[in-house]
Design brief:
This protein is an alpha+beta fold. The chain contains five helices and seven strands; from the N terminus they run βββββαβαβααα. It has one domain. The protein is 30% helix and 20% strand. It has a four-stranded mixed sheet with strand order 5-1-7-6, covered by helices on one side.
Length: 176
């Protein structure tokens, strides 16, 4: 089984123990990604956000042919607890109905896809998308190492993840 991982954030530059076989490819499918998850590290992380404009994401082949091993490696890399089975998304291409993601994978001879599937999160609510204003105020309120980490994250996310929030935040905070 040929398995690929989709990525759009720190997984690209810091895969850690995820068994990435080769470099990340920039010709991924277009998904609605936005900087709408306040993460445990303080940064405003990128996640699938259904109201966002789709952007081209990245993908990489994984050096395993077992979907369970790939999902477990991604779960561990992302620090998602075993109890939270909804934090990793996967799709077996031959069993999936037609659709953009399935068609994209079939064109590349991919048998299965995995991705991080954590929801947006505001300061106080899992699943709630912070507004652009709330996101800017949150990041502007950070200080010291946490603020530097948040700025570094936003600047390191690949440029093709060109989102509405990213442009507004970078401009408002002078991070461009």
């Amino acid at each position: 089984m040929k398995i690929a991982c989709l990525g759009w954030g720190s997984l690209i530059w810091k895969p850690e123990n995820l068994p990435v076989a080769w470099d990340w490819k920039a010709d991924g499918p277009h998904l609605p990604i936005e900087f709408t998850r306040i993460s445990d590290g303080g940064e405003l992380a990128t996640v699938i956000s259904l109201n966002a404009t789709p952007v081209p994401i990245l993908w990489a082949w994984l050096d395993t042919d077992r979907l369970d091993v790939a999902c477990e490696a991604l779960r561990r890399r992302e620090g998602i607890t075993e109890e939270r089975c909804d934090g990793i998304g996967s799709l077996l291409i031959h069993n999936a109905p037609g659709g953009m993601l399935n068609d994209w994978a079939r064109e590349r001879d991919i048998d299965a896809l995995i991705w991080t599937d954590l929801p947006p999160r505001s300061e106080d609510t899992e699943g709630r998308v912070p507004s652009i204003t709330e996101a800017i105020l949150y990041l502007d309120g950070l200080s010291g190492e946490t603020r530097e980490h948040a700025r570094d994250y936003m600047q390191r996310v690949p440029a093709q993840i060109d989102t509405t929030y990213r442009r507004a935040i970078m401009h408002a905070l002078g991070w461009d």
